[in-house]
Amino acid sequence: MSQVRQAPLVAQWEFRRYFKWKDQVLGLLIFTALGAIGYAASRLATGGRDPVTIATAGIGIETPAGGRVRLMSVPADSGARAQLLNDGEAQGILTRRPDGSFDLLVEKDPRYLPELRALLAGVVLNERLAASGLSGAELQRVLSPPVLEVQFTDPERGRSSTAEKIAAGVFQGLVLLAIFTSMAYMLTGITGEKQLRVTESITVIIPPQAWIDGKMLGIGAYALATVANMVVGGVLLAFVAKLAWGFTLPAVIVRPGVMLVLIVYSILGLLLWNAFFGAFASTIDDPNTSTRTSVMFLPMIPVAMTLTVMRDPDHLSSRVLSVLPITSPSAMPVRVILSGASWPEIVASVALLIATIWFVRLLAGRIFEIGMLMYGKEPTFREMLRWASSKSDRR
Amino acid sequence: MEHIVQFDRVSKSFAGRQAVEDLSFNVRRGEVFALLGPNGAGKTTTVRMLVGVIRPDDGSITATVEGRTTDALPAASVGYLPEDRGLYRDIPVLRTLVYFARLRGLERHEAKRRALEWLERLNLLDRKDERVDALSKGNQQRVQLIAALIHQPALAILDEPFTGLDPLSQEFFLVLVSELREAGTSVILSAHQMDLVERAADRVLLMNSGREILSGSVADLHGRLDSRPLVRLTLEGGTAAGVLRDDPDVIDVVVDGANDNEAHVRLREGAAVPTFLARAVTRVGVLSISTERPRLHDIFVRAVREDDLRRPASIP
């Protein structure tokens, strides 16, 4: 039986080994329920706050309508004011110094401070306006910014840019989640097979390359399915929120070309990391006792490097990062969304990425071939490099 | 008889350590061939070269399956029960077997049909939907054996198939091995239970430190290693066995038994047992007489020790 037929069988097996409808549905329900509880709690927290009474002494400020901060004028006697705090009739005592600054005396952390600051800012502004002789309208005219409307040559881009940025951010987060999910299952799956001594039985039947190829595909598909399930959960949650509280789902318009770039780079990036982690996992017996688990944080590096692309997508470094195979899965989608990249650039970047995946996959196959039959001492990185560059020992 | 696999002066070393050295043997179609040796003798390396997981440094391996001769056994022709065995513990039995069969190239329906057939044959049909880890160790071993044989290989390699099994299961495996032989399947058997190997094997290859130290049929080995007759006499009480040492055909006498009345008498090579017995009964009171031949276990131990003495540097 050829490798071409064996790898999909392994992929199917790996996918079915981990993908359980029951778990997915349960996860979806828990995710939606937790989200609904969180959303409801935040609604209650923002909508149901009690009014706050602040005692003012010697300050002529009226309580504005609609706010939760209520001002109450009290005598200037400090003893009486302290009594108000003790009795709980006021949550703070506001006094004013001769230079115009304010003091707030409280018993506990004033959570209403932003609202009080805004109220006092209005008071001080009115005082200063009165002193300068300017009317409110005149001040607004002086401070108003110039009008500048941005018009894109592609009108679709104008309508979708903000939504695309949000979608791209969410998408990148989900891809990172898929990579980490995939990595976790590669590590536990492969080391588990070593611990269960399944390896010897399988390596006789199929070449190591077909085995690792199948794992890359099957576990990658499982990770994508899990992330897709979370997206479904998110959408479901939005509908629950819409029905319960009238939440409106933001309209996300992503251009088809951009969506294609996002999908292609996500899948390729996932495959690249799966090949890497497949080889790595075969060299350790137990991730719980291995001293090399810090390697698991490697996928964060290209994501961190992508931050420079977000700052200036047209800079030379951004262009380089969007073509380099390790960073391109993160950098190119960001660049395409924030600035744009020519199709030849994208095609060259994708071709380079595919070639790299192919190369890493072959190296991983060699390391996997030796690592899967080794127990005990973990090989050094130098040994792994030597394995990767050696010729296959299989007949 | 036609050979299914032939090793010709095969050597393999790892990091300067010679694992297999100048090894030649062949396995015939439809025979049970025992590959024996102490730990570290090179059996696993030999088997791994045989199944194509590793390549020899020197020498050649040729396989002849269905009239075609190749330099490696086709994966579909080999069924391998490794010593380091294991299955996916959290997967149901039937699904596991279908997966292994499909990797061997069987279509899904055929894989399922054969899996069910084997499960029925091995009394596991009612447990087909249970997870593998719900089965006893012996039953897990049966499932593993099915996974190795489900595609009807021309050569079955069974590495330590009796380990961890109760006597009844060991007998069951012995019957299965003989059934495989009758069906024309060649079997390479590697095991430490010498009494079972002796019953199952047609031919034996004994390895030590990566080399062959003895090979041939079980009967050949008995004759080749020690052709000096061994006689066991149960003596009447109070009889002194020591007088037998004066007999001209006797080399050695070992006395044991509950009352020191069992005498194991080793005669010189070529000695006639009846003549010796005729003399012996006139000198000691004898209750019973039997002749003994060395067990495969004794042959194994003696051959390895002699080899180690010849090559002290190679003792692990």
Walk me through what this model shows.
The complex is a heterodimer of chains A (395) and B (316). With 395 residues, chain A is mainly α. Helices cover 66% and strands 5% of the residues of chain A. Chain A is built from 14 helices and 4 strands. A 4-stranded mixed beta sheet of chain A has the order 2-1-3-4, with helices on one face. In chain A, a hairpin with a 5-residue loop joins strand 3 and strand 4. In chain B, helix 2 (93-103) packs across helix 3 (108-121) and helix 2 runs parallel beside helix 4. Chain B is built from 9 helices and 14 strands. The two termini of chain B are 37 Å apart. Chain B has 316 residues and is an alpha/beta fold. Chain B has helices spanning 43-50, 93-103, 108-121, 137-149, 167-182, 194-200, 218-225, 273-283, 296-310, and strands at residues 3-14, 17-28, 32-36, 58-65, 68-70, 78-81, 155-159, 186-190, 203-208, 211-217, 230-235, 250-256, 262-267, 286-292. In chain B, the strands form 3 sheets. In chain B, strands 6-7-8-3-9-10 form a 6-stranded mixed beta sheet, sandwiched between helices. A 4-stranded antiparallel beta sheet of chain B has the order 2-1-4-5, covered by helices on one side.
